[in-house]
Design goal:
5 helices, two-stranded antiparallel ribbon
Length: 117
């Protein structure tokens, strides 16, 4: 499954994790920016949510209602809200279990080396 929803300002928005989502977060999941010693931080959470929302809008060919700043503002204002934290845990779970994410972020060290011609 690569789809879930989350409430932003009382409105349920859809998140879909796929290729566009992966491209969005691939250069933004950087230690010290999206992560710190305690794991993913508010900027990382915001990027994750926005990447799924952006991907959903692209697939559905809809104009996004929310921009990244809107998502950051919402995340920052809800970091102590237990219901929001549970929603974020579900988002992280769906993202991490997404086939596209799993197939593109696994350790490739067990693959056979390509032969040079």
């Amino acid at each position: 499954m690569n789809y879930t929803t989350i409430k932003i300002n009382g409105e349920e928005i859809s998140l879909k994790f796929g290729m566009a989502s992966f491209r969005h977060i691939s250069d933004k999941f950087v230690d010290g920016i999206s992560f710190d010693n305690n794991g993913i931080n508010e900027i990382g959470i915001s990027h994750l949510i926005y990447s799924g929302y952006h991907n959903w809008c692209l697939v559905k060919m809809e104009k996004p209602k929310y921009n990244f700043e809107d998502i950051v503002d919402y995340v920052e204002s809800n970091l102590t809200n237990e219901q929001f934290i549970e929603e974020v845990k579900e988002v992280v779970k769906v993202w991490s279990e997404s086939d596209f994410i799993k197939n593109n972020s696994q350790d490739k060290s067990d693959e056979e080396p390509k032969k040079k011609i």
